[in-house]
Amino acid sequence: MQLRGMCKVIIGTIAITLTVGVSSIKSERILADTDTITFSDVNGHWANATIMWAADLGIVKGTGDGTFGPNRNVTEAEFVTMLFNSFPEMKIPIVPSRPWYTKYYTYALTTMNWPVSLAAASKPVLRGQVASIVAASQGQLLSMDKAVQYLLDHKLANGKTAATVAGFGKEAPLTRAEAVSFMKNLLDQGVTLSAAKGVVEEDKLKRNETVRDDAEFSIRGIAIGDSEADLVKNLGQPIRKDLSEYGFQWYIYNKDYKNYAQIGVLQGKVVGLYGNTTKWQSKHGIKVGSTAVEVKKQYGASLTEIQKGNTIYSIMREAGEKDIFLLDDAYTTIFYDIHVNYTVTAVQQIAKEVELSLRGFAGKPSKELSQSFERQDFDLVNAVRVRMGHTAFIWADDAAASARKHSVDMGSNGYFAHENLAGKSPFDRMKAEGITYSSAGENIAYGQQSAIFAHEGWMNSEGHRKNILTDFKRLGVGVGLSEKDRVYYTENFYTP
């Protein structure tokens, strides 16, 4: 498996110290004497008055075509922006970069300690997650159910069907009309925004740390064969659901990268597990840091092939980077860190019937699968960075655009190199996307069946590993799937 890396650093530093204060004075608002704002689709809507109130105050805008879209889903980035817009006394430092919500997320994460995730920024936000964010804005880092109860107790929200935790509709996407209603409730109650202290409560901590005696491997208490209902009961709804190359959905739990987990679900049953943090367990004591010798002593020799129908697939084991075993009717891949004495760094399990059903290599090419690989790779990088004591990267749409174009170009034109056929280097390509950087780097990979295998391969290549663990600030990932069952991956890193 061929991997190449490139890192170019331009030396130059500048330090700026900002003192940030949060006003405790309630904001008073005076409507400007301007042209009346109108929307063609809110007359008769239950939130009509609140929508017009929010538009007049500049908390929210229309969709640009004379409508408001009151029933349209809101992304987490849009909700966080509305929240800050509702409290203009909050002076958000300007961050001259893309995407547009970067300054809000930087402030929410680093200054306010709110439970938001850059990986979820462009996804529809669920009402339960909104409850957690709003509670945090009042200084309360709570589990989702407790956050919902806090909002109800303090009249900061109403339930969707009833003013109870069960009736709150925490798993329902938030609409634009509901979002402005949250803002109205906050301001009507005279609250201000606060930084949250501590860490989010883990109601299921005991379950998540328990070693299952009925399964060889489990992640945060979940094992192959568990029901989807049991998964959601114990870990809650995932931040997002990603398509896998097998056709099942990965439930992505990335709210806290220290507890990162991917749980594969198909037809209501857990069929896949992946973890590269310390939150997975083995009933025989195999864990992050165990040696390859200990693994083989416990499980025997690694598989060298898998037969699917009449086809035998050989298993490539690059320089001892992984071993594969059939355990508990699941193909179990144990990944090693060759730079730390061939010790265990991650584990993946795929149910036997699911693995045997996959024909070909990387699944059916699709835009959805490409996007899934991109977001997963970003999460995998951040999870291992946090585990190793580094800060998480900020997602960069501009870097992702550059990376994606390069991956697609390599796949379409049949080459594998940092310099494209037009002679453009990674840094030329990043500049073409409008990126201004003080340092930048790129990783590329080709042929791995998923983001998981690409990431683990990069971590075992010294140059790629350096890019992943260096002090760049932002990362964008782009994936190209060709019709010839080939996958191209590109990571573009930079620091403004």
TrEMBL record:
PROSITE patterns: SLH (PS51272). InterPro entries: CAP_assoc (IPR029410), CAP_dom (IPR014044), CAP_sf (IPR035940), SLH_dom (IPR001119). Residues 34-97 form the SLH domain. CDD domains: CAP_bacterial (cd05379). Pfam families: CAP, CAP_assoc_N, SLH. This is Copper amine oxidase. It comes from Paenibacillus psychroresistens.
